[in-house]
Amino acid sequence: MSDSKYYDLVVCGGGAVGLSIAYECVKNRWTVCVLDAGEIGKGSSWAGAGILPAGASVDALDPLEQLRALSHRLHPLWAEELLEFTGIDNEFRRCGGLYLARTRAERATLRANCSWWDDHGIAYQQSTVGQISQHLSGLKSVTLVEPEAECWWVPGDCRVRNPRHLKALQTALTQLGVEFLPHTSVLDFHHQSGRIDRANCEGNRVVRGNAFCVASGAWASKLISTVGVATGIMPVRGQMLLYKLASSAFSCVINEGHRYLVPRDDGHLLVGSCEEEVGYVTETTQEKTDELRDWAIGLMPVLTENRLVQSWAGLRPGSFDSYPYMGKVPGFENLFVAAGHFRHGLHWSTATGVLMQQLMFGEPTDIDLEPFRVLRGNAASRL
Ligand SMILES: Cc1cc2nc3c(=O)[nH]c(=O)nc-3n(C[C@H](O)[C@H](O)[C@H](O)COP(=O)(O)OP(=O)(O)OC[C@H]3O[C@@H](n4cnc5c(N)ncnc54)[C@H](O)[C@@H]3O)c2cc1C
Predict the structure, then answer these.
(1) Last residue within a domain, chosen from 286, 302, 317
(2) 186 CB less than 6 Å from ligand 1?
(3) CA geometry: angle at 175 spanning 173 and 177, to 5°?
(4) Is 379 part of a structural domain of the chain?
């Protein structure tokens, strides 16, 4: 089935990254179509927690820190703009982050973090849970065991309610005239003389355009390989639990190692997560959900009296060197990729939207994209 429509940009993948790119491009007057193999906004971006760790307040040299800092500056602006435009509050909150250390290894890691925070001008304060509780609204209603555990407080950490953010983006895009094709998996691209002219989709559907951007998260390496280019993007599963408390017990994000508690304003509480290399498997496991539940209850015994609403797993788009891929696919003048954001795709999606728009429009980019180029390292080459 051939669609007679022709778009300035066809975005392959409707997660936080794809929707953010579409948002920036449509605001700059491109016609845009977003395709997704499933529902729009239901990939790993939906499954995530929405933690937005503080960004550098000084000029960072490290490319990832530049990306984090730009994203962190953009999130409150986007939240305000989306609220005004759609009436949807994405629950962006400057809530602060509590980093808890109860073992010697956790204390060592956090002390190392301090020099990183110092280098990047990120404010923090070392304390005990008892001392810090005065800064945390509602914490007194929570029984935190081991009040003498060491902890660090980072006031610049923020959170966003990712399903609401995705809904706000999708609503804004609809109002701006972006077309969505859910349940339309892109199989490959038709190209001639280094130029893509159409995306071939499941069900013999064809979508034509002037530029194409692969933003299909953990699945991006499969799609890019169809044009003979290999990338080091791989799925890394993370599992999550969702509790419902009568009201929000505290407002900050509580971190311990790679596990965390993330509150929502209405009393929902997320418990995450883990990192598992198990391919494209999205089922939860009893072992990990038990582990997360036990850790959360150990920290917050009141959870035993509250309802476990749901558990799920999502696939983070990991990359072999922790750098996302953002750039033009070599050998093609109009094929781009923005994927491989691993644990940070919700956070870095705002800057990614801005930078990819600048790149595709042929404008200078706010950050040098060379470190994020498609062909790099041993893990990536022409197939
Ligand atoms: C448990 C968990 C917790 C997380 N917590 C955080 C956090 O606190 N903060 C943070 O910043 N990040 C977090 N992340 C990471 C973040 O969710 C990802 O980095 C981010 O979602 C990547 O966005 P994306 O748009 O690239 O991919 P996705 O959101 O996965 O979107 C990709 C989309 O592409 C579609 N697709 C795939 N193949 C095709 C195809 N062939 N054709 C068309 N469409 C296709 C998929 O259906 C999907 O909808 C977390 C992730 C998990 C799993």
Answers:
(1) 317
(2) yes
(3) 70
(4) no
